[in-house]
Design a protein that fits this description.
The chain is α+β, with helices and mostly antiparallel strands. It is built from eleven helices and five strands. It has helices at 41-73, 80-105, 123-132, 135-163, 169-188, 192-244, 249-277, 280-285, 287-296, 314-335, 371-379; strands at 301-307, 339-347, 350-357, 384-388, 395-402.
Length: 407
């Protein structure tokens, strides 16, 4: 499920200096870098960073050249591509260390990129291909490859400046450090939201495929064990009735009457199955009527309140319906509640659902109550799923879905 974490930072005390290192002003602020003393602690950190550039650049350059040479050179063999994928994974680690170094010595705040997708990648070949096409690792490889000449230059200039160009050294150091900041931001930062969304969508695709396969297996099982078995018994009963039609008309009539009852039961099971795929009331009358219908079948008293000026997309309606349906089933089976409520409304471009009950609480997506599956299903369409269920109750489950107007 897509998680959104918002952090807040307290405002500084009046008159206090802002918590931004000189030279790390946000891009586009339009403000010149703050003035500072010639050899303050920030300058010494930048000097330390520039002097470390050469050994770090040598290590990174040797690593990526060795990895690329071995991986590409052995690509014609079985082990070539795994070696290259492993080398790219190591490049990710190198990038992580470089972001930490830039953060500690240059004050550059660079977000960590999305991890390689884990779920939704099937088998060894799937994981191998995911590692080979990792854009983060390839950008880090380019960064490490470019750093060797730059590391030699910055190390030499800084070292000479310490003994020869002392009066102007802070200005030289600051210019070189700003170039390092730009290089780190350009090659070690996540590529905006696109990269994160690609990773999320690849993971969500696997969730959608797994959910669809599980639904198909459920439908097949219900047909085989329910309506199909009943129709087989019906055919056998009608065959026996046909044989007895001339010999014993009364027994044949009783068999036909029993078969008639079997037909009614089979039709009811098929209706229930169709309702489980997509209820007719949802198609004909919308989410409000469909939720009222499912609430009427709950074993506790449920109050439904829907404030929907129009209908969302059909797929979103279906997900909302089955989400509420499963939550009400959980309330009936597990909560021990006496009453519950369902509230549905639109907020901007989002559809919000809130289901409350006065049961004993303790619900958690990790306890096998189907909540984890709901969270995955909502996450696959960029939705949110939040469970608030302290021991002793009450339980409040909030779901949020994209609205997506009907076509």
């Amino acid at each position: 499920m897509t998680a959104r974490i918002i952090t807040t930072k307290p405002e500084p005390e009046p008159g206090a200096a802002p918590d931004i290192a000189p030279g790390t002003e946000p891009a586009g602020s339009g403000r010149p870098p703050a003035a500072r003393f010639a050899f303050d602690r920030h300058t010494w950190k930048e000097i330390a960073y520039l002097l470390c550039n050469l050994p770090v650049a040598v290590i990174g350059f040797v690593y990526v050249v060795t990895t690329l040479t071995c991986g590409i050179g052995l690509a014609v063999t079985v082990i070539g591509l795994p070696v290259l994928a492993g080398g790219l994974l190591g490049a990710r680690l190198f990038g992580k260390l470089e972001r930490a170094r830039a953060r500690g010595l240059l004050g550059v705040r660079i977000d960590e990129p999305s991890p390689l997708p884990g779920s939704g990648v099937d088998g060894f070949l799937g994981r191998l291909w995911s590692g080979l096409k990792d854009p983060v690792a390839w950008r880090t490889t380019l960064y490490a490859f470019m750093r060797l000449p730059w590391g030699v230059l910055t190390f030499t200039v800084t070292l000479v400046g310490l003994f020869v160009l002392w009066p102007v050294l802070p200005f030289i150091v600051r210019g070189l450090a700003n170039a390092d900041r730009a290089m780190a931001r350009g090659l070690l930062s996540p590529s905006d939201e696109l990269e994160r969304r690609i990773a999320e969508l690849e993971s969500d695709r696997g969730v959608v495929v797994d959910t669809a396969a599980a639904d198909l297996r459920r439908i097949e099982r219900d047909l085989h064990d329910g309506a199909q078995a009943r129709l087989v018994n019906l055919a056998m009963g009608l065959g026996l009735a046909k044989e007895k039609l001339l010999e014993d008309p009364d027994a044949a009539a009783a068999m036909v009457d029993e078969a008639h009852g079997e037909v009614k039961l089979a039709l009811q099971e098929l209706r229930d199955l169709a309702r489980g795929i997509h209820p007719a009331v949802l198609t004909d009358r919308g989410l409000d009527a469909a939720l009222s219908s499912v609430a009427s079948r709950c074993t506790v008293t449920v109050k439904v309140t829907a404030d929907l000026p129009e209908r969302p997309a059909e797929a979103i309606e279906g997900i909302a319906y089955f989400t509420v349906s499963e939550l009400l089933q959980n309330i009936s089976k597990h909560s021990g509640a006496r009453s519950a409520s369902v509230d549905v409304w639109r907020a901007g471009d989002r559809l919000l659902i809130q289901v409350r009950d006065d049961g004993h609480g303790g619900a958690s997506p990790g306890k096998g109550s189907g909540l984890a599956g709901l969270a995955d299903r909502l996450g696959a369409v960029d939705g949110l799923f939040v469970v608030d269920s302290p021991d002793g109750g009450p339980t409040t489950v909030t779901a949020e879905l994209p609205w997506r107007d009907r076509a």
